[in-house]
Design a protein that fits this description.
There is one protein chain. The protein is α+β, with helices and mostly antiparallel strands and 347 residues long. It has three domains: 3-133, Alpha-Beta Complex (Adenine-n6-DNA-methyltransferase TaqI, Chain A, domain 2), CATH 3.90.220.20; 135-162 and 306-347; 182-302, Adenine-n6-DNA-methyltransferase TaqI, Chain A, domain 2 (Alpha-Beta Complex), CATH 3.90.220.20. Helices cover 36% and strands 20% of the residues. The chain contains eight helices and 16 strands. It has helices spanning 94-101, 104-111, 124-128, 137-178, 186-189, 264-279, 292-296, 305-340; strands at 7-9, 13-15, 24-25, 48-52, 57-60, 69-71, 76-78, 82-87, 182-185, 192-194, 208-211, 218-220, 225-233, 240-249, 253-256, 299-302. The strands form four sheets. It has a six-stranded mixed sheet with strand order 10-15-13-14-11-12. A four-stranded antiparallel sheet has the order 1-8-5-6, covered by helices on one side. It has a four-stranded mixed sheet with strand order 2-4-7-3, with no helix packed on it. Helix 4 packs antiparallel against helix 8 (305-340). The radius of gyration is 22 Å and the shape is elongated. It starts with 6 loop residues before the first strand and ends in a 7-residue tail after the last helix.
Length: 347
């Protein structure tokens, strides 16, 4: 069986003006490693866009090694850098075809068709000609059901994480607005250090997180840091994350480990607010990199113990939920090839 026998590429075009921002998908708001999509904050440009329907499969055709593939949960529009594939439900369960596109066998085969040095693109004909074994519809439904139930739990956890962080940020901003607190600086409360590794230190199946200036989740085989940390990219795609555990870092990533754990959450939000100000361009040119001195001068509010405890409790919940999510992702990724090649049979 080849993909073209059970699915086709959709090229339906509709006016960009007919698409809402929240229904517009680009390669920028697709998460890597089959992580779904983020809500778009911008409207599509004038002209036409490709229309997709709920149940279609969207694949980023730029740098396919980022594995940006999404099973559409609503109707919308996407830009020309995204392939829209629609399964024939009489021959193939759409969600089963989506999971086929997430297997290493498919991704590695499709990557062979990529052309271009800086922004490699795949060949859609290679996708349509991909050969695979197709079980009967009832088996497809069972496999998609098992993997889908895991993805639903992962999605719920990610929603919970976003809600917990939003709540913690609201508490932080409310007390900031009162202006009834003392403050300190990052330089006074913790060492400002960077990682020592090159970007090629990442490994495919590493045991430890590797933080770089990219938002992509990377892993490595060795750790250098351990504990509650705020990670700030020093150049490129400026962003901030927090983590608790063993990890390593790229040489332009700042690692901030407060000596006083009560400052863990306030440090994260203070850095986040500073990044927003520095990159907004409101006061002139937009900052492209951050120096050690910039980081050391960032002010951190010192809240009453009950507020610091509340914020840090929220962060503990987030970290626990993230850990549970990682376990679910690991289970799904282990089951995926076994189910797709028939090594594990779902009754």
């Amino acid at each position: 069986m080849v993909v073209s026998e059970v699915a086709s590429q959709i090229r339906d075009r509709i006016p960009a003006s007919a698409i809402r921002a929240e229904d517009y998908v680009t390669t920028d708001n697709m998460r890597p490693n089959f992580g779904g999509i983020d809500a778009s904050s911008s409207l599509p440009p004038s002209g036409n866009v490709t229309a997709f329907q709920e149940g279609d499969i969207l694949l980023s055709n730029i740098r396919p090694y980022f594995r940006k593939t999404w099973f559409a949960t609503h109707n919308g529009g996407c830009n020309a850098d995204i392939l829209c594939i629609r399964a024939n439900p009489d021959k193939c369960v759409p969600k089963y075809l989506y999971y086929l596109f997430t297997t290493n066998n498919f991704v590695n085969d499709y990557l062979k068709s990529c052309k271009g040095a800086k922004m490699p693109r795949g060949d859609v004909q290679r996708l349509l000609d991909y050969q695979f074994e197709l079980p009967d519809l009832s088996t497809q439904l069972r496999i998609a059901g098992v993997l889908g139930s895991l993805d639903e739990k992962i999605a719920l956890n990610r929603k919970k994480i976003a809600e917990l962080e939003a709540l913690a940020k609201l508490v932080y901003e409310q007390f900031i607005a009162r202006k009834q607190y003392a403050y300190t600086t990052i330089g006074a409360e913790m060492p400002v250090i960077t990682g020592k590794r090159d970007s090629n230190f990442a490994t495919k199946n590493g045991r430890y997180r590797f933080f770089t200036c990219s938002k992509e989740k990377l892993m490595c085989d060795e750790y250098e840091f351990k504990g509650k940390s705020v990670l700030l990219s020093g150049n490129g795609d400026l962003h901030v994350k927090f983590y608790d555990g063993r990890f390593n870092a790229y040489q332009r990533t700042y690692v901030l480990m407060p000596r006083n754990e009560a400052l863990f959450a306030p440090t994260y939000f203070a850095v986040q607010a500073t990044l927003k100000r520095l990159t907004s361009g409101a006061a002139g040119s937009i900052v492209k990199f951050i120096t050690k001195g910039d980081v050391e001068r960032i002010s951190i509010p010192i809240f009453p113990n009950e507020i610091s405890n509340l914020l840090n409790d929220q962060f503990e919940n987030i970290l626990a939920t993230e850990s549970a999510t990682e376990e679910l992702i690991k289970l799904r990724d282990e089951l995926l090839p076994l189910l797709m090649n028939g090594q594990v049979v779902v009754k």
